[in-house]
Each structure stands twice: as C-alpha cells, then as structure tokens.
Amino acid sequence: MNGCVFCDIVAGRAPASIVFRDELCCAFMDTQPVNPGHVLIVPNKHVASIDDLDEEVGGHLFAIAQRIARSLRHSGVHCEGVDLFLADGKAAGQEVLHVHLHVFPRFAGDGFSLHPGANCTNLPTRTELDALARGIRPQLIDNSP
C-alpha cells in the first residue's frame, strides 16, 4: 500500500534492522523503542485491522512473538520480562494503520506503564459480566473475514 511505512519496510524500500522474515511476516527493531530490544512484527501483506487479518497469519505473528520474547531473554538485552502489545484502531492508540505486534523487554524501574482509565475502578457485577459474555459469545461462531 502506498504511503505505509511498514509496507515500505517489508518491500525493502525503507531501511530497517530486520530480526526475522519469512513468507508471512517481518520482524524488525522499533525506531521509537519503549526499551532497547523493542521489536515490531508485521504481516507482509498490508492489513489495517485485526478484523481483516487472516487467523493463520495472526497465530503466526504470536508464534514468532514467543520466539522473539525467548530470544530477548537470552540476548544480553536488559530483560526481566516481556510485554506483547497490539493496538487495533485509532481509539486504541494504533498510529500506523498496518497490524503490528510489539514485543519489548521489561525490567523493574523501566518507567513504562499503561494507565488505566476511570472505568477501571467501576467493577462490574457478575450479572453484568454474564450479560456481556452472552452478547459476545454468539459472535464467535464464524465471523472470519
């Protein structure tokens, strides 16, 4: 897709420090890392939202994320834990509209945090949780793209 920096990286039109590449995805170092060792994994095919992401490719992204997380722990990078993060949609904080999975090392005192919103203190009742589950469950039948 024209103008997509991740498509340009996958196509070799933009520079990147590649960690991994295969027929489904490409993993490279984030240029604005949370911590040193921050890796992004993107599908090779342009997909803006996880709604449109093939389940096989989505599963593959997470399998590669597991391998990268394991590698971070053994690479010499300061890594006491690992976060996996995927923002889907602008409201969720997705800045580049090409699906991408962040894999980044964490350590005590690194200063990174996700700040919970005001709704996190309004704990739902079991009745409310059950009602939400009843609304979501039927949508799982088969809503693949």
Topology:
Elements: H1 5-11, E1 18-21, E2 25-29, E3 39-43, H2 55-74, E4 81-85, E5 101-106, H3 126-136
Antiparallel strand pairs: 1-2, 2-3, 3-5, 4-5
Summarize the entry for a quick read.
With 145 residues, the protein is of the alpha+beta class.
Describe the structure.
With 145 residues, this protein is α+β, with helices and mostly antiparallel strands. It has one domain: HIT family, subunit A (2-Layer Sandwich). Helices cover 26% and strands 17% of the residues. It is built from three helices and five strands, in the order αβββαββα. It has a five-stranded antiparallel β-sheet, covered by helices on one side. The chain starts with a helix and ends in a 9-residue tail after the last helix. The mean pLDDT is 93.
Biggest beta sheet summary: 5 strands, antiparallel
What is the name of the CATH architecture?
2-Layer Sandwich
Spans of 5+ residues with little confidence (pLDDT < 50)?
A: none
User: CATH homologous superfamily?
Assistant: HIT-like
Shape: globular
**Category from helices, strands and their pairing:** alpha+beta
CATH topology: HIT family, subunit A
**Total E-strand runs:** 5
Mean pLDDT across every amino acid position: 93
Q: Domains counted in the coordinates: how many? A: 1
What percentage of the residues does DSSP assign to strands (E)?
15-25%
Number of helices in the DSSP assignment: 3
Radius of gyration: 17 Å
Q: Terminal Cα separation, in Å?
A: 19 Å
Percent of residues in helices? 25-40%
| Spatial ordering of strands, largest sheet | 1-2-3-5-4
For the record, what CATH class applies?
A: Alpha Beta
SSE run: HEEEHEEH
